[in-house]
Amino acid sequence: MRKISGNFLPNTTPRAEFEYPSHIDPESLRLLPNKPGIYIFRGDNDAPLYVGKSINIRHRVLSHLRCADEARMLTQSRRVEFRRTAGDIGALLLESQLIKELQPLHNIKLRRKREMCALRITAHGAPEVVFSKDYDFASEAGIYGVFSNRRSALETLRTIVADHQLCGIITGTETGSHGRPCFSRQIKRCRGACVGAESIEEHQQRLLQAMEAMRVIQWPFAGAMGITEECDGWRQTHVIDHWMYLGSIDAANVQIERPKKRCFDIDAYKIIVKPFLAGQLIALT
């Protein structure tokens, strides 16, 4: 085992010493900055093992080295690579992008490029499951929730129907014909749109209100927008178009990769929608 002085580790006394695995390149650890960005644990033949992000790269990587639960990954690791960003948003976006590109062995949750599906209200007022290969979730109106499979979407819809006393026949969660009571109506858990006790318009309004929290916001801009972050005088702008992360630019880097095919990425959407709602997206000049 190698040792490194305590000033390499945050929250330690100056004379404290920390032992770290000798099979991990010490120079790659020494160069880790106390700044935002992503880090990549790499194994034999530079294979990507794990991608993570932090507002303090050095502190986060060294916390991995102290974690007994990550012994398998650490045993496989040979060096640690890092890439700086000017803030946490950039680190989140870059982490999400690299996990999908590199397919690291130990990032199981986020590494798959999933075929997304969602709920959409039809012209007849009934929800249906639609897939991102058929609809542009970033531009299409009336897209609710984003799910990894059809079953998950239908389970969510059934929960909404039950919680809000909606009609199973009208929402398509059970078979039957209009004019006959749905099962929930028979047990007094439906307000009766199926038998005319509630108007279709009222039922539709309640359905939309119940699903509003899941509504995917349509991209409201004509083209790409930016999110700017700054760290120690370094200004970085993350370029976003239709909720897709295209890359980050600064004074030395003006190249942005535009995908040939637009593909809705729920992970990027969840990261970007927060600064969007906070009014942080700016026009690119």
TrEMBL record:
GO molecular function, a single term: nuclease activity
InterPro entries found in the cross-reference section: GIY-YIG_endonuc, GIY-YIG_endonuc_sf, GIY-YIG_UvrC_Cho, UvrABC_protein_C
GO cellular component: excinuclease repair complex
One Gene Ontology biological process: nucleotide-excision repair
This protein's UniProt keywords: DNA damage, DNA excision, DNA repair, Excision nuclease, Hydrolase, SOS response
Domain GIY-YIG: 34-108
Name of the protein described by the UniProt record: Excinuclease cho
Organism: Glaciimonas immobilis
